[in-house]
TrEMBL record:
Family annotation (Gene3D superfamilies): Winged helix-like DNA-binding domain superfamily/Winged helix DNA-binding domain
Keywords: Repressor, Transcription, Transcription regulation
Domain HTH deoR-type: 12-67
Organism: Chromobacterium paludis
Protein name: DeoR/GlpR transcriptional regulator
Residues spanning the signal sequence: none
Repeat as UniProt keyword: no
Superkingdom: Bacteria
Gene Ontology terms, MF aspect: DNA-binding transcription factor activity
Length: 261
């Protein structure tokens, strides 16, 4: 029996809808596979991908495209999303710590859960540029807390700019928990703002080991600004139900992986 095509592929609008669905489900698409499935030329698919990329839906990569993470959500919105899943990642993350270490907690709602999960009997020195994380650490007397100053981003709750950068230059943490908007095997770790990306790049350079705890929806996605290749990540902590195909992409990159309990 002849296999039916998924839609009336002659219309660009129909193809765009189908490509959007595939990006949402799988994170990435290949031009050759789309052309074969939809019965059109690869040139047509490449034009479709260029148009979708111009509209902020995806980012072109060699042979296809990957989903582009949205950048219009605030810290408060993100804090309400999947708190249980983030707490599970955090529980695994804090088990990587040892007494007396110097730890940098970068901004982000998963890192906020890491701050909440810190054991009360674990003495650490913690630096952060995230005001919500600093507030969470307030009163935990086993911790020495250093808060980076600078210009406050009211959307993310983080400080950045010259003051924060100069303070970071004087630090050499043992471990940093890096915040991110996207993770891809080819494009690495990304974020949505240029100044934020520059700060995170320096953070990776200054720290002995970089750990990334990532929720499923960030896998196989892209952001406008690059932070670091996966080769610079010392450990990637993932949810136990991560999509097998996306997990395989990351395993192929060689980055050390650990699944949350």
């Amino acid at each position: 029996m002849r296999k039916e095509r998924p839609l009336a592929s002659g219309l660009p609008s129909d193809r765009h809808q189908y490509i959007r669905q595939q990006l949402q489900q799988h994170g990435r698409v290949l031009a050759g596979e789309l052309a074969a499935t939809l019965g059109v030329s690869e040139d047509s698919i490449r034009r479709d991908l260029r148009e979708l990329a111009a509209n902020g839906v995806c980012q072109r990569v060699y042979g296809g495209a990957i989903a582009l993470r949205p950048s219009d959500t605030s810290f408060e919105q993100r804090r309400r999303e999947h708190p249980g899943r983030k707490a599970r990642l955090a529980a695994t993350a804090v088990r990587q710590l040892r007494p007396g270490q110097f730890v940098f907690l970068d901004g982000g709602t998963t890192n906020l859960e890491i701050a909440r999960a810190l054991p009360p009997d674990l003495p650490l020195t913690i630096a952060t540029n995230a005001i919500p994380i600093a507030a969470e650490l307030f009163g935990k007397k086993q911790l020495e807390v250093l808060v980076l100053g600078g210009s406050l981003n009211h959307k993310s709750g983080d400080t950045a700019g010259t003051i924060a950068t100069r303070m970071l230059q004087a630090m050499h943490p043992d471990i940093c928990f890096l915040g991110t908007c996207s993770v891809d095997r080819e494009l690495g770790v990304g974020t949505v703002m240029a100044e934020e990306a520059a700060f995170k790049r320096m953070l990776v350079e200054q720290c002995g080991q970089t750990i990334l705890a990532v929720t499923n929806e960030k896998l196989d996605t892209a952001s406008p600004f690059a932070v670091a290749p996966l080769a610079d990540i010392g450990l990637l902590i993932l949810e136990p139900d991560a999509d097998p195909s996306r997990l395989a992409h990351l395993q192929a990159s060689g980055v050390p992986l650990r699944m949350a309990d």
